[in-house]
Amino acid sequence: MNFITELENEFKTKQHSENALPMAKYMKDLFPFFGIKTDERRAVFKSVCKKHSTEINNNARVIGWELFLKKERELQYCGIEIIINTLKNQYVVEDIIWIEQFLITNSWWDSVDTISKFMLGAYLQQFPSEIPTVVKRFSNSENMWLNRSVILFQLGYKSQTDFKLLQSLCLKHSHSNDFFIRKAIGWALREYAKTEPEAVRQFVLQSNLKPLSKKEALKNI
After folding, report:
1. Which CATH class is domain 1-87?
2. Number of alpha carbons in the 13 Å side-chain half-sphere of residue 178
3. CATH 1.25.10.90 domain residues, the chain
4. Which pTM does this prediction carry?
5. What's the CATH fold of domain 90-221?
6. Distance between CA atoms of residues 78 and 86, nearest Å
């Protein structure tokens, strides 16, 4: 039995119908769920991965993408985690095309935020020379999730954050009325404020950000 088949069978045997409906409702009924909560899902995932480690290591991109195309959200989460866990520091330049597909497929905040930070962010740390090209293309896209992804990709960079780039992206999208963009601006600034609180405070006070963005950015300062 291959990895995906076994994982899917394990999830089916552990599905909780009483959890599935409220979990789907929380995600605006965009995806069906098995109803398996995070800790249990990760425990099952880890156990099955351990049995199929060679298969996963040799076929991470194919397995991750196939899981991400499954209808149940828990399997989609596992597809993302396969990539994050297996390909860190092992991306190739061409992977950006495929990362973009992850961002624009089955898109909602939960998947996009994880992909932005842990896949796109990791890829651009590995290939910093690609940052200008990727940022320009994603930030100019008509796809809101791509816009959000480049605002958020530096979430884990801390002192390595390019604050000038972050500021430019915040200002570029500052007039957006989309909730997810306004929230992303505030979140990205709030995260960097853990490293440089005064710099973030000054930027927020001097810029014409939407009220939600300002509120989120200054929340912990």
Report:
1. mainly alpha
2. 13
3. 1-87, 90-221
4. 0.96
5. Leucine-rich Repeat Variant (1.25.10)
6. 12
